[in-house]
Amino acid sequence: MIRCPHCGTTTRIYHFSWSALSCQGCDKIVDKYDFDVETKVKTENINLSKDQWQCYSDTPNDVIKTVNKFFTYILFVCETPVLAQKTAYAYLERYVTWGFLDSECCQVATDMINKYYNSDINRWQCMNEELIKR
């Protein structure tokens, strides 16, 4: 389920192979990453602060908001914790300038993944599995 950020109308979707949709409630065109995502587990959208992410202190607030929204999306679409971690790390690479690939941020991401999936993967799990495949 996704919720329009303009009017609050919820819509069931079955995939994310689109870039924007017209809201059925208010007819506004909404970018995929602007929708609020209702995750599989009854949780709120990820809304961590700069301090909670443990990124650099000069990280712009819009970067934090974007990372939170996409992390919510990752938890919604990834089937396993390792896939979620791999996807999160690939995404966080875009924000390396603000420390999002530092060990602290990677641990925060892994902790959120473990909480969401009720798993116990470590910070390097997706990298370990890549090495095993080789």
List keywords for this structure.
2 domains, single chain, two-stranded antiparallel sheet, 5 helices, globular, three-stranded antiparallel beta sheet, mainly alpha, 134 residues
Q: Note the overall shape.
A: globular
Question: What does the oligomeric state look like here?
Answer: single chain
From N to C, what is the helix and strand string?
Answer: EEEEEHHHHH
β-strand number: 5
The strand line-up of the biggest sheet is 2-1-5
Helicity level: 40-55%
Q: What is the residue-mean pLDDT, rounded to a whole number?
A: 86
Strand content range: 5-15%
- Judged by helices, strands and strand pairing, the structural class is mainly alpha
Total count of helical runs of at least 4 residues: 5
How many whole angstroms does the radius of gyration measure? Answer: 16 Å
- Number of discrete domains: 2
Describe this structure in words.
- The protein has 134 residues and is mainly alpha-helical.
- It folds into two domains: 1-38, no CATH class; 44-133.
- The chain is built from five helices and five strands.
- A hairpin with a 6-residue loop joins strand 3 (20-22) and strand 4.
- The longest helix is centred in the middle third of the chain and has 17 residues, at 61-77.
- It starts with a strand and ends with a helix.
